[in-house]
Write a structure and sequence with these properties.
Length: about 170
């Protein structure tokens, strides 16, 4: 193992969007057991600092790999198709129209039940986008299209946070 290994190599997992979460979690536990700073207490400060670097590296990699959206973005970046979401916000017209319709529906939702129905609709759409994304990355290897899909999913994730805030607001007024 090298600190500079990519996350998949570090975890001895294939570079794929579809990962077995149980396998990822087990691999994390194994790695953490190997690099935990307490194991190096008798070896001095330098060994403990290095172990701490490894522990941080393993935790960062795990956080990136366990989240499907972060994992997809990472796969795109590894393949030379950076997400660049701050500067590249281009989206297909149909997707933008869908976003506008959802935003209007959220604004016009009279109660929690309407917001929850909207959230269920958005969640189904999000699942379909993730299924497409997995196929783009794992089957077709189309990282350029996958990068655009990741950006779209980032929009959806932010919108779902807006839905959550709206539900919290509605719940607080009851």
């Amino acid at each position: 193992m090298k600190l500079s290994d990519d996350d998949f190599t570090l975890f001895a997992l294939p570079r794929r969007q579809a990962l077995d979460r149980g396998e990822l979690d087990a691999r994390r536990r194994d790695l953490q057991a190997q690099v935990h700073p307490d194991r190096f207490a008798a070896e001095g400060a330098a060994a403990q600092r290095l172990a701490m670097q490894w522990a941080v590296r393993v935790n960062e990699a795990y956080q990136r790999l366990k989240d499907p959206l972060s994992r997809a973005a990472y796969l795109c970046e590894l393949a030379g198709a950076p997400i660049d979401a701050e500067r590249n916000t281009a989206m297909p017209a149909a997707f933008l129209m869908q976003q506008m319709a959802w935003r209007e529906a959220l604004e016009d939702a009279p109660d929690s039940a309407a917001v929850e129905r909207l959230d269920a609709d958005v969640a189904r759409h999000e699942q379909a986008l993730f299924a497409e994304l997995t196929e783009m990355l794992d089957t077709r290897g189309d990282t350029a299209a996958a990068a655009a899909q990741v950006r779209a999913l980032m929009f959806v994730a932010r919108f779902r946070q807006d839905i959550e805030r709206r539900l919290d607001t509605l719940d607080a007024t009851r």
